[in-house]
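stuck on this one:
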Amino acid sequence: MSRAAFGSIVMSRGVGRGPTELAAFDAALRDAGVANYNLLCLSSVIPPGSRIERRTWVTPAEHWGQRLYVVLSQTRSASPGQTVHAGIGWVQHADGGQGLFVELHDIDRERLSQDLAHTLVAMQQGRGLDLGPVHTEIASATCEGEPVCALVVAVYAPQAW
């Protein structure tokens, strides 16, 4: 029995500012195109047949309030001058499309990049797999008076109630 291909997973990112950290988070969700959904966070497994597309998610008006399955990395700061970074890393089998995601955040971009790569290597080793090179998407924001949020979201699929 053959399995149907999963399809696209959209890798979107957003940065937001607001009077509170939560308002900044909402602004970052709007920037990434996912603010009008109820987000359901998933863990780290990319289904077979998946393709990763780097672009902003576009929400059709009729999707307001639907469920949206995502892997989400987000970080916030209200400390003036502080820069924060959120990232998702992934590895993916070139032929089958199956793979792994990892989501992390840090105030040091280089350390974040290294931690994403090291974590994915360890996850593959623990499974006895080599799924290929590490890919990353990182969003960054610097607090310049107002709280900020940086986020990266891997969008699997919306679902109506």
